[in-house]
Structures are given as structure tokens and as C-alpha cells.
Amino acid sequence: MYWHTFHTTDDAAQALARAVAAELAKRLETQERVTVAMPGGRSPVAFFEALSCETLDWSRVTVTLVDDRLVDEGHEDSNAGLVRRHLLQNKAAAATFWPLVTEPSNPKADIARLDAELPEIDLVVFGMGEDGHAGSLFPDAPETDEGLAENNPHAAIIVTPPNAPHQRITLTLARLLTAEKLYLAIQGRAKAKIVQASGWALTGRWPISYFVQQAKAPLEVYWAP
Predict the structure, then answer these.
(1) CA dist 65 to 62, 115, 199, Å?
(2) Considering 127, 170, 205, 212, which has the largest number of Cβ atoms within 10 A of its Cβ?
(3) Do the beta carbons of residue 63 and residue 96 sit within 8 Å?
(4) Is 125 helix (H, G, I), strand (E, B) or coil?
(5) Strands 219-224 and 181-187
(6) pLDDT of residue 202
(7) How far, in Å, CA of 180 to CA of 72, rounded?
């Protein structure tokens, strides 16, 4: 785990945008296409807007999500809508978008589509909640153990969070760890303590611990107080 500390969240967002853009451009030197999975929620807006202005061959980049809510893209809680409004703009408008949710009322169809067609993921950018959840793998959700299972053959699962609105679709740990590099963006001392403590205990209480303790993909943390 590599830890990057910044004075402000804006500094962290700008630095993360530069790092992700550089990694995408580097991979495009040897690959025809690259795929990056992005976080949702309100926290990544500054990162999205900074990344959208970075110069690279966006026409060869596929953007997908780590997780999303089972709502239409026009809903204010849709991560897909957030990405379209804040990332797929400016230079990044040329990227291809691969949504997780196309049929909110029929998520099993989306799971089947993702299992069959989701491109291989090169990079993952994700966040973490103050309860230690990553993506939509929540500590108390009944489906989280399935989502964290190393041998789960599915690209994604449906999750019913106990203390948050809307059912979700989230990529599984097994699928996320096929990426070559992981970027975790967090802010606040409480979240920093959880990530640091996760290095000592692998527990479903903190799903983030499964990302911290794995050895398949380098994890870089971008943190601001």
C-alpha cells in the first residue's frame, strides 16, 4: 500500500487525476484499449472534472463503475448520471461508457450482461465509507460475504444495504482484483484510521480490509484530512 497525503481534498483530487491520466496514457502505449472502473457518490466530483480535462486518447478508453444504485440514470442518486455529468465531458467526452445498470427493475439481466460482456478492467478508482464499506460491499449487507469471496465467478452482485437507500449493483472483489492497479480516494482522519487498521485485521466488519491486505494489485491511497 502506497500512501499519498495532501493538504486539501482539491489537491488530492488534482493529483489523483494526473496519476490516473498518466497511467492510462502509459497503458495506451502498449494496449489498443484500456478500461477504468470509477467510484460513485459526491466525493469524486472534483476528481472527475479534473480528469475530464487531461490530454490522452480518450477514444480508446472505456469507463465503467465500481458500483451503482438500481435507479434510472436521470435519478439524482445514479452514479452513471454523475459520471456522465462530471467525467464524460471536455476531452473525456470521447470515452466509451459501460454502465452497470441498464434495467433498474430487472437487475438479474444486468448481472448476466456484466458476466458475459464486461471488459477486462485495467485500473480501479474507488472510495470508502466511514463504516469501512468499499464499492457497495457494506459490512452488514447479507450479500457482502458473497461479494468478497475470492472464488466468486460473477463480475457483479446485487446488494441490499441495511442502512442506505436503494438496492445496488457492485462489482465483486474477485473481479476488481483482476485490475493492474487500485486507487483509493479518502478524506478525513476517521477513514484514515480504518484503512490503517485494516492492515492488521481481515474482517467483514471492514470490507476495505480485503483490498488493503490483498497482494494481487498495488493499492495507492490518496488522502487529505
Answers:
(1) 10, 14, 25
(2) 170
(3) yes
(4) strand
(5) parallel
(6) 84
(7) 31
Grid cell locating 69 = 444504485
The confidence score (pLDDT) of residue 223 equals 98
As averages over each run of 10 residues, the pLDDT of the chain (225 residues) reads: 97 99 98 98 96 99 99 97 98 99 96 97 97 95 96 97 91 98 98 94 90 96 98
- CA 146, distance to chain mean position in Å, is 18
Extract the runs of DSSP E, i.e. beta strands, from the chain. 2-5, 34-38, 61-65, 67-69, 96-98, 123-126, 156-159, 168-171, 181-187, 219-224
* CA–CA separation, 157 and 114 (whole Å): 10
Q: Enumerate domains of the chain plus CATH numbers.
A: 2-212 (3.40.50.1360)
CB 34 within 8 A of CB 28: yes
Length of the chain: 225
pLDDT for position 87 = 99
User: Residue 111: how many CB atoms within 10 A of its CB?
Assistant: 17
pTM above 0.90, yes or no: yes
Amino acid, res. 77: D
Residue 208: φ, ψ to 5° = -60, -25
Whether 139 and 205 have beta carbons less than 8 Å apart is answered as yes
* DSSP-derived secondary structure letter, 109: H
